[in-house]
Inverse folding.
């Protein structure tokens, strides 16, 4: 049995006599360098560090690495003895949502919240602490920053300091002032070769030295007041004022408040809260919601006592979410009339109103003309402080669809409550049809049962807004819901927030899954990975006799992507109907396949506007949880192979191969060319051309190739590895932390150099915990996409 006698987890120093305990470490002679044993014993005497108990013997394990949470715990234990204060309940409660978001273990809440409150940590620092539920090991540089910031609050730091270590170039410029302070106080220095080894994980022996020296400095020496530039943290800020900078993190908490971390233009890290109903957020002269604040947005903030008064986005990195979208009814030179649910609203146009139709600049008169041609539009209105319309974004909707909960239904009209909380009334066609994937329900059945069962439907309307089809997406009552558990004798479904459990006899039950006859074992094997919506047939004894299950859907789940944001995705089916669905709250949890390859939501959100991407959606708890997207227009990309018969191009990281027409025409930058000449030039250098292809009427063969030379390469950036996946890499440079996406023609093997075999090797090493030991050099193209990667072990 092994029991870890942790760093002082409760955050208090155990100042009882522990000398005998320290002296009995079984492995005290296995320290990594002479003299370390003294500090390990002193750390145990002071209660800063204890050890491990295994099979009745005590071990210090001096070569073991230390996690970020443990290092923060040590800083907390030392500082609170100096300040004679603690992380009280209000401080922990204030930072708890942030700590939960970063999976910080509960035992570290006091230490981490205390460090955040003191400005020793900012929230983006927490991204290093955990990988899922696994604690990550800390590097010497990061621990040095942690202790340097803690001591710097008392002794001050020299923001113009320089380091003399031989490997000083591998240390981030922002770390130098704090490491200089530790060197000056003889707390943390280099090795015998005058190297600091910043990217190496710190071990328990080194941590003992650092902790004991810091503790003694604060408890035996008289601190001098800061005489240099104050620290980069929130507590050193004035109680009120104004700052400008870039958003490093922004999140809306469960109580509706906004929390954001800001990198100010003068190099500081600032944590601020925006209070729901009090703080105001502005963009382009208009008030917007907290959720519109995004990472890398340029902002100007007015604050008081740590709370945002006003936050103005001066440059939005990803754009903001528009809220006031309606169905357009009429427009004149001075007014616009829209449908808001079942109500009509009229707005006055500003004298300088801007109009866009399908993202093309237009005018009120042209929009009126299009409306007169019996075209349908949804419009997003921008209003100024006088409630006048300053911008209109109009999107044509050929035939409409609307999704919601049936509230009322008769032979002539249906009322549904949409996701926006508004009720909409629609007239019904005399030949309206009903479609249900779980049961063969008729229109008469629907009229009879909608009062007792919640039916969530999608309505298909004709050009006049009359409903021609009602598609039942799902129903919710005590016999219809999501399957949450199933065994050989009973099952549980969840419906309208309640759970219902039923029993059954295995031999008497009928099971159908997605229209095919299955058995209970099939559902038992798959329900945890696939969300199933079920309809149960229940006898008079409340026993289930039949289960009809289908993979959870929210209506039409396949179509061309027309819109994506961090909260929703819209697709258009083959008949021109548009469907809008909410996505999982954390888009990182959405499984995305792009052209058959694993990708992520952010990447898809970047590329869907370039081409038509057909997506198949899967759902979990009524939200999109999986997206499989395929480029349906792959006609422009980078040339990857060429013969007399075939051409292969790379589009968004995926290869597409096409047959060539025997009379294919070739052009190179507006000049006539030949296929033979293009093949010869291409074979001289890999990835020399981008090409645009034209096809025959059947889209089966390429009839024309228009080629251009690839753009010249862009910048080279260098920094410490923070995160890496198959689609992107995040590094920390001297000035900031930034994510870069791999270019379409990046090769996982040939374009990776240095101390790793290939991209998979680097990812595996990162996942195993030693990825932060690598210094990264990226070669970028003009679109800031990675074309070459060099990884060197620091």
């Amino acid at each position: 049995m092994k029991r870890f006698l942790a760093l002082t987890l409760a955050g208090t120093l155990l100042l009882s006599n522990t000398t005998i305990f320290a002296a009995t470490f079984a492995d005290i002679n296995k320290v990594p360098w002479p003299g370390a044993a003294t500090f390990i014993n002193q750390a145990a005497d002071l209660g800063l560090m204890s050890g491990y108990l295994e099979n009745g013997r005590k071990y210090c394990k001096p070569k073991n690495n230390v996690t970020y949470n443990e290092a923060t715990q040590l800083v907390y234990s030392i500082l609170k003895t100096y300040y004679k204060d603690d992380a009280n309940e209000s401080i922990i409660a204030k930072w708890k949502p942030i700590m939960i978001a970063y999976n910080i273990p509960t035992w570290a809440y006091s230490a981490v919240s205390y460090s955040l409150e003191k400005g020793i940590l900012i929230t983006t620092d927490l991204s290093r602490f955990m990988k899922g539920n696994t604690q990550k090991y800390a590097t010497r540089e990061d621990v040095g920053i942690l202790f340097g910031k803690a001591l710097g609050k008392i002794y001050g730091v020299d923001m113009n300091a320089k380091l003399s270590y031989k490997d000083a170039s591998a240390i981030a410029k922002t770390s130098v002032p704090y490491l200089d302070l530790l060197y000056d106080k003889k707390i943390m220095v280099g090795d015998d070769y005058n190297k600091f080894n910043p990217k190496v994980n710190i071990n328990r022996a080194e941590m003992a030295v650092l902790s004991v020296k810091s503790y003694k400095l604060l408890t035996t020496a008289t601190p001098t007041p800061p005489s240099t530039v104050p620290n980069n943290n929130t507590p050193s800020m004035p109680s009120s004022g104004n700052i400008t900078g870039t958003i490093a993190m922004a999140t809306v908490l469960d109580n509706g408040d906004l929390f954001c971390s800001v990198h100010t233009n003068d190099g500081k890290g600032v944590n601020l809260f925006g209070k729901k109903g009090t703080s105001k957020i502005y963009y382009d002269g208009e008030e917007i919601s907290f959720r519109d604040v995004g990472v890398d947005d340029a902002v100007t903030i007015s604050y008081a006592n740590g709370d945002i008064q006003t936050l103005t986005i001066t440059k939005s990195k990803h754009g903001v979410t528009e809220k006031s979208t309606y169905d357009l009814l009429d427009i004149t030179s001075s007014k616009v009339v829209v449908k808001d649910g079942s109500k009509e609203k009229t707005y006055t146009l500003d004298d300088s109103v801007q109009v866009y139709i399908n993202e093309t600049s237009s005018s009120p008169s042209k929009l009126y003309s299009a409306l007169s041609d019996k075209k349908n539009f949804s419009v997003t209105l921008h209003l100024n402080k006088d409630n006048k319309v300053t911008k209109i974004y109009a999107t044509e909707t050929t035939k409409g669809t609307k999704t919601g909960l049936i509230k009322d239904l008769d032979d002539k009209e249906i009322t549904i409550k949409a996701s926006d909380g508004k009720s909409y009334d629609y007239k019904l066609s005399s030949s309206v049809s009903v479609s249900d994937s779980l049961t063969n329900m008729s229109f008469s059945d629907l009229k009879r049962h909608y009062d007792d069962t919640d039916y969530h439907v999608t309505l298909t309307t004709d050009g006049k807004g009359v409903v021609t089809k009602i598609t039942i997406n799902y129903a919710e009552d005590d016999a219809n819901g999501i399957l949450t558990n199933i065994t050989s004798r009973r099952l549980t479904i969840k419906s309208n927030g309640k759970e219902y459990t039923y029993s059954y006899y295995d031999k008497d039950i009928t099971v159908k899954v997605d229209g095919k006859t299955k058995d209970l074992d099939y559902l038992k094997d798959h329900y945890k990975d696939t969300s199933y919506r079920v309809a149960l047939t229940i006898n008079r004894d409340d026993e289930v006799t039949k289960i009809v299950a289908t993979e959870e859907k929210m209506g039409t789940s396949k179509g061309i992507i027309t819109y994506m944001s961090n909260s929703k995705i819209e697709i258009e089916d083959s008949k021109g109907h548009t469907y809008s669905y909410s996505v999982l709250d954390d888009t990182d949890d959405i499984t995305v396949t792009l052209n058959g390859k694993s990708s992520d939501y952010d990447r898809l959100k970047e590329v869907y506007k370039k081409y038509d991407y057909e997506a198949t959606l899967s759902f979990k708890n009524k939200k999109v949880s999986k997206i499989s997207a395929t480029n349906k227009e792959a006609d422009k990309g980078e040339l990857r192979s060429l013969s007399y018969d075939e051409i292969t191009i790379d589009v968004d990281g995926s290869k597409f191969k096409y047959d060539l027409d025997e009379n294919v025409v070739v052009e190179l930058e507006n000049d006539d060319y030949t296929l033979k000449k293009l093949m010869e030039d291409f074979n001289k250098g890999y990835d020399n051309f981008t090409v645009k292809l034209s096809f025959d009427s059947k889209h089966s063969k390429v009839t024309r190739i228009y080629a251009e030379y690839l753009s010249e390469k862009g910048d080279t950036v260098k920094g410490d590895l923070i995160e890496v996946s198959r689609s992107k890499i995040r590094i920390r440079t001297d000035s900031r932390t930034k994510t870069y996406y791999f270019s379409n023609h990046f090769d996982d093997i040939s374009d990776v150099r240095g101390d790793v075999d290939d991209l998979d090797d680097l990812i595996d090493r990162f996942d195993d915990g030693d990825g932060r030991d690598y210094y990264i050099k990226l070669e970028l193209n003009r679109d800031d996409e990675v074309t070459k990667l060099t990884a060197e072990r620091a």
The first strand starts at residue 2 and ends at 4. Residues 97 and 254 are 8 Å apart (CA to CA).
